[in-house]
Fold this sequence. Notes:
Radius of gyration: 18 Å
Shape: globular
Number of domains: 1
Structural class: alpha+beta
Number of helices: 2
Strand order of the largest sheet: 1-2-3
Number of strands: 3
Amino acid sequence: xxxxxxxxxxxxxxxxxxxxxxxxxxxxxxxxxxxxxxxxxxxxxxxxxxxxxxxxxxxxxxxxxxxxxxxxxxxxxxxxxxxxxxxxxx
Length: 90
């Protein structure tokens, strides 16, 4: 019984260590209430401008994309595919 508990505990620890989505690190979406001037014009069409956040790690804008299978965050991009950021990239 002790071995079974140890194996179960170890399995839970290993599984919890694997949870990484690669998405913005927010505890809950704090969507921008108002987009900065020019952001809507710079963004390519088809992106959800009603649910935009700034990712603190890179300073770029990300939008919430509701796909067929899941809802996730994607970088907000210009018509030519460049990410839109609030500060220069390092």
